[in-house]
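4.2 Preliminary Data

To establish feasibility before requesting continued support, the project team ran the inverse folding procedure on a target of 1213 residues. The structure was first converted into the token representation described in Section 3, and no sequence information of any kind was made available to the design step. The complete token record follows.
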């Protein structure tokens, strides 16, 4: 078989072009070229070796000659191309030069035209702007001609440029003359000179000469273009010729290389053929030797195959059996004649042991893939004699030397007994592992000497919270600290209860049993551990369950009655006693539950059950338990009769009690009082009726609504409408329901967008749509909608209302017009308020300046040494009192103005009411004592806070308290009371026992400048305090009022909202006017006062003159004051705001920016006393902002604070 394979396959190194080795060996010259076949050996050698060498030498010379010619042609073409390209570049440069000359000539002519046009425009209009082109070109025209003369290349052209100079000079001179005449206002002479036409003749002459030059240059340009195109054509011809010559040379060179390649190929082929013939002869000799060795090998292989216990089968490439050994014949049940030549599938029938389905034969896979194959496990061989064998096999392909598959060898073995043993061992191991994995107890093995854990089951790891790898190899004392080899060295160890330690540190109770076993002369232990936690919990649960069962049975909330089989009561629980009024002793073994039930109901139940069960049932206990005796669930209502003969409905559940043999031994009746449920059912019926009434009422409201009401589902389909929607669309309710909402509007997409918007935003307000009836009538509606849901918050759809707004839109237009009118009026009023505020601010400044001198000098006079006489003191006091009264009047007028213009600022915060009242009373205590007025204030809760602005509230309370003191009777009293109201508000009442107010006076109380006839009473006042107080209280969200009776007095009250106090008590630090005297250096301190008012200067000199520690310097304007500050470096600067030249803010900025004066503290002293003025001054950087008229004590305190900063070396704040 192997011989046949080798004879029909050539060796691996045989020539590829020879397919018949017999022809090669019999006629070696057959394969030589025909012209060499009949020559002798000498000629053959000459033709084979010498001639080809000579031809190769000749071919090499030809190649070099052709390459040289190609290079020469290429160099000639490159040289010619470079010369032509240089000519092209020269021609192109001359073209650009000529174009440049033409452009300059045209620019020259254009500039001259612009100059002439500008000159004529100036002559006509006299506007110098027209002369700009003339002036721009007047001095450049000759330089233009000179530049053109340099560019021109011909003598004729340059001569033409020279001829242009005279007319150009004449033209420019004439234009200059005309311009000069026009400027001299000699218009007639200028026009006359223009009308003479000399300028036009000169211009035409210049234009003609320039055009001639341009035309000559264009001719030159055309010649350059022709020369350029001709040169390009020559370049193209040269490049084309060079390319053709190079291409012909390349083709010749390629053809020569091709011929030389063919000749070399013939020589190589001849040499290869000769070598192949010689190798074939050698291979034939080797083949004969190999055949003999193969025969001996086959004989040895046959002996070996017949003696082994494995079955061996060989096949050819068609999977037909070519050889089979005796073991294979015995296992397959075939004879050699039956097996040989048959396909391997017929000889070797193999199936899957589990499924009994055929499996692919490995021989087929080996023949197809050319690689070794093997059967999977669970493979069985079916023998012809009916026997079945478990087999294991391997199959390998038979390959030739070049890798071609020519057959296969299959070796298989009977492994039935081995598989059976392995399966038994595997089953036992699986069974054991399954048992260990499924038991609830922990199982482990320990080494006998050191008690190291060797194996554990899953229950063990679960019990202790460790992974198996974390336990194996560890000492058992990691899990059970009390277990040790020394303490437990017996063959069997049983510990009823020990403490186990889990991985998380928790402990639990367990019991352990250890048994000794010997493996390989080594002692080991197997242990079983059981968690006792659940058992303990179960025991505790049983105890609790018994107690719970007893508690349930003894519950007083339901009755539990147990009877024997005849119905006599045996158990009567506490609930039954409470429910029925009997004690257990009164009923046990004496009556049945039927005796305490309504007899008429028992008779009716017996009849009903007899008809239902189709068997006669007696009234009484049998009617109660009939269904339960047949294991039918039975829950029903029955009337119980109490011991006092009262009745109540009870809900029963009856259960039959059976013994172990399923014999009824009694019944258990559990009942609850059903009175409450009956009442609930009655209430539910009433509620259902009310719900129906409410639905009818709601529907009536919907139908009576003036708006069109619609509901839709989430997709926009109408689900319900009212009558107004029918009128709006002229459709019936049935036509509308189920139709798309958008269908009934002029813009369906806009209507659909409304539904989508409701679904996204949950509601829509005033969404405008236009509805349209079937007749085409359109109505603008305002669409308001929201989503609605069921009780489970599932979206049901959209509820919408559409209101006709045609009339409203008309009224909106009217309203808009009115609003515009009101806005204009408001703007006018704002302007008036602004003007009033500006006027009052200015008036305040103008009044404060003289008041400053009046009050200042009056204060100085009052503190003169020696002291004034009593008469002088009274007069001075009158001056001071009148001055401060005038100042208060100014301040109140300004405050009223701010309130009316809504410019007042306030900060709402929790204010301690008791503390606020105390501060106000402290400020007015002296005034009350002077007038002999007693003030009574009951204790006020210190934790009472109101929501107000602290400053404004104090202003209101001081106003009311001042009025109560001023307008009281001699030796009168004032009572202050704080009362909490039910609506989280507090009322502050201020009661006096003065003259009281009539109803007419009360009606005029809160009017500006109305003192209610008190102008002649001698009591000072402005008449606007109460009005300011009222408006401030209302701004803070409160109310103010009065109760009064003539002759008894008045009660003014303020109500404000209460709030919780702040978490951290606010601490107010009152200014201590008794400041300690600062110990200063002995030197005098320099004070610079910058003021432009002489009276104020004199006042300051008087005040500072009494302070020996100050050296006063005065300046009457800001600039000189700044210079003095830089030269003298005063300790403190007192600065007025309204100064001549530069104001006080500018002076302050200069002082702060100068390094010499930046450290000096600056105080502002100004008659600008508005709150905004004070804030602006402090923000600008003044240490203090003092207002006129000045208070001497306040001024000295401010100077004291400034000197402290100066002496401490701190920067001014």
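Position-by-position output of the design step:
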């Amino acid at each position: 078989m192997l011989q046949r394979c080798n004879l029909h396959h050539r060796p691996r190194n045989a020539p590829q072009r020879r397919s018949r080795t017999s022809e090669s060996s019999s006629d070696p010259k057959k394969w030589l070229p025909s012209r060499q076949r009949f020559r002798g050996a000498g000629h053959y050698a000459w033709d084979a070796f010498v001639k080809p060498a000579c031809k190769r030498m000749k071919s090499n010379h030809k190649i070099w000659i052709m390459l040289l010619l190609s290079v020469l042609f290429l160099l000639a073409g490159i040289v010619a191309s470079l010369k032509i390209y240089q000519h092209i570049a020269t021609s192109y440069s001359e073209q650009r030069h000529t174009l440049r000359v033409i452009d300059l000539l045209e620019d020259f002519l254009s500039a001259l035209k612009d100059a002439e046009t500008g000159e004529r425009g100036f002559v006509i209009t006299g506007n110098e702007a027209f002369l700009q082109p003339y002036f721009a070109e007047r001095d450049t025209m000759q330089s233009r001609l000179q530049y053109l003369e340099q560019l021109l290349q011909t003598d004729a052209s340059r001569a033409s440029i020279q001829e242009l100079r005279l007319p150009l000079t004449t033209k420019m001179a004439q234009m200059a003359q005309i311009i000069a005449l026009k400027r001299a206002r000699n218009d007639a002479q200028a026009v006359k000179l223009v009308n003479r036409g000399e300028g036009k003749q000169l211009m035409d002459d210049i234009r003609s000469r320039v055009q001639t030059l341009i035309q000559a240059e264009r001719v030159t340009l055309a010649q350059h273009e022709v020369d350029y195109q001709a040169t390009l054509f020559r370049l193209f011809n040269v490049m084309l010729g060079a390319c053709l010559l190079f291409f012909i040379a390349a083709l010749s060179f390629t053809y020569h290389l091709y011929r030389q390649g063919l000749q070399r190929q013939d020589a190589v082929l001849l040499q290869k053929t000769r070598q192949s013939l010689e190798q074939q002869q050698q291979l034939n000799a080797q083949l004969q030797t190999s055949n003999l060795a193969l025969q001996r090998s086959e004989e040895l292989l046959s002996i070996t195959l017949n003696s082994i216990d494995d079955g061996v089968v060989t096949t050819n490439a068609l999977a037909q059996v070519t050889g089979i050994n005796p073991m294979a014949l015995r296992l397959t049940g075939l004879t050699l004649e039956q097996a040989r030549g048959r396909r391997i599938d017929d000889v070797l029938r193999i199936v899957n042991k589990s499924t009994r389905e055929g499996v692919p034969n490995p021989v087929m896979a080996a023949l197809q893939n050319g690689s070794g194959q093997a059967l999977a496990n669970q493979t069985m061989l079916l023998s012809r004699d009916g026997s079945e064998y478990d087999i294991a096999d391997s199959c390998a392909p038979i390959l030739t030397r070049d890798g071609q598959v020519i057959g296969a060898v299959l070796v298989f073995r009977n492994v039935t007994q081995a598989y059976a043993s392995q399966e038994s061992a595997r089953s036992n191991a699986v069974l054991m592992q399954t048992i260990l994995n499924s038991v609830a107890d922990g199982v482990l093995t320990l080494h006998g000497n050191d008690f190291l854990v060797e194996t554990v089951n899953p229950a063990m790891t679960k019990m202790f919270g460790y992974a198996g790898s974390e336990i194996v190899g560890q000492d058992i004392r990691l899990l059970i600290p009390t277990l040790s080899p020394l303490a437990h060295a017996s063959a069997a160890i049983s510990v009823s209860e020990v403490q186990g330690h889990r991985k998380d540190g928790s402990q639990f109770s367990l019991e352990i049993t250890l048994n000794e076993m010997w493996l390989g002369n080594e002692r080991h232990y197997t242990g079983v551990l059981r968690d006792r936690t659940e058992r303990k919990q179960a025991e505790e649960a049983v105890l609790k369950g018994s107690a719970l069962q007893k508690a349930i049975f003894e519950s007083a909330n339901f009755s539990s009655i147990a009877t024997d089989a005849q119905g006599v009561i045996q158990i009567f629980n506490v609930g039954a006693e409470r429910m029925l009024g009997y004690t257990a002793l009164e009923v046990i073994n004496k009556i049945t539950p039927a005796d305490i039930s309504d007899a008429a109901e028992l008779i009716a139940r017996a009849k009903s059950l007899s008809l239902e069960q189709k068997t006669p049932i007696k009234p009484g206990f049998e009617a109660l338990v009939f269904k339960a005796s047949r294991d039918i669930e039975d829950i029903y209502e029955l009337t119980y009769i109490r011991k006092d003969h009262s009745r109540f409905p009870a809900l029963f559940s009856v259960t039959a009690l059976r013994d172990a043999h399923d014999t009824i031994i009694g019944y258990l009746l559990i009942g609850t009082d059903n009175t409450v449920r009956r009442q609930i059912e009655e209430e539910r019926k009433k509620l259902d009726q009310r719900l129906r009434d409410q639905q009818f009422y709601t529907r009536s409201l919907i139908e009576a609504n003036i708006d069109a009401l619609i509901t839709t589902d989430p997709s926009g389909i109408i689900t319900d409408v009212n009558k107004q929607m029918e009128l709006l669309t002229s459709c019936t309710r049935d036509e509308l329901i189920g139709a798309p909402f958008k269908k009934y509007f002029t813009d369906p997409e806009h209507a659909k967008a409304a539904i989508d918007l409701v679904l996204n935003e949950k509601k829509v307000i005033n969404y405008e749509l236009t509805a349209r009836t079937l007749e085409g009538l359109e109505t603008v509606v305002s669409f308001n909608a929201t989503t609605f849901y069921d009780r489970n918050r599932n979206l049901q759809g959209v509820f919408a209302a559409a209101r006709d707004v045609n009339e409203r839109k008309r009224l909106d237009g009217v309203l808009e017009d009115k609003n515009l009118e009101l806005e204009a009026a408001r703007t006018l009023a704002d302007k008036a308020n602004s003007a009033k505020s500006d006027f009052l601010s200015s008036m305040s400044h103008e009044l404060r300046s003289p008041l400053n001198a009046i009050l200042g000098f009056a204060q100085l006079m009052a503190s003169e040494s020696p002291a004034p006489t009593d008469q002088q003191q009274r007069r001075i006091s009158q001056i001071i009192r009148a001055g401060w009264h005038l100042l208060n009047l100014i301040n109140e007028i300004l405050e009223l103005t701010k309130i009316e213009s809504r410019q007042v600022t306030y900060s709402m915060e929790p204010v301690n009411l008791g503390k606020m009242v105390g501060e106000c009373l402290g400020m007015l205590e002296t005034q009350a004592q002077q007038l002999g007025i007693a003030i009574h204030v009951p204790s006020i809760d210190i934790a009472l806070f109101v929501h107000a602005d602290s400053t404004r509230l104090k202003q209101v309370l001081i106003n009311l308290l001042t009025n109560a003191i001023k307008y009281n009777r001699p030796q009168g009293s004032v009572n202050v009371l704080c009362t909490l109201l039910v609506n989280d508000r507090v009322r502050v009442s201020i009661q006096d026992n003065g003259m009281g107010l009539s109803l007419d006076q009360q009606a005029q109380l809160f009017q500006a400048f109305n003192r209610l006839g008190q102008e002649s009473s001698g009591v000072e006042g402005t008449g606007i305090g109460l009005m300011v107080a009222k408006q401030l209280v209302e701004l803070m969200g409160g109310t103010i009022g009065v109760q009064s009776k003539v002759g008894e007095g008045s009660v003014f009250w303020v109500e404000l909202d209460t709030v919780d106090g702040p978490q951290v008590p606010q601490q107010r630090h009152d200014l201590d006017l008794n400041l300690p005297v600062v110990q200063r250096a002995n030197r005098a301190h320099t004070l610079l006062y910058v003021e432009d008012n002489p009276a104020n200067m004199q006042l300051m000199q008087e005040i500072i003159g009494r302070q020996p520690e100050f050296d006063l310097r005065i300046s009457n304007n800001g600039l000189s004051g700044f210079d003095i500050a830089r030269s003298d470096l005063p300790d403190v600067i007192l600065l007025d705001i309204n100064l001549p030249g530069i104001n006080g803010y500018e002076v302050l900025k200069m002082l702060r920016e100068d390094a010499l004066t930046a450290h000096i503290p600056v105080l502002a002293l100004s008659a600008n006393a508005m709150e905004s003025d004070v804030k602006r001054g402090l923000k600008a950087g003044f240490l203090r902002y003092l207002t006129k008229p000045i208070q001497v004590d306040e001024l000295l305190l401010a100077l004291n604070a400034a000197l402290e900063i100066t002496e401490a070396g701190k920067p001014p704040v």
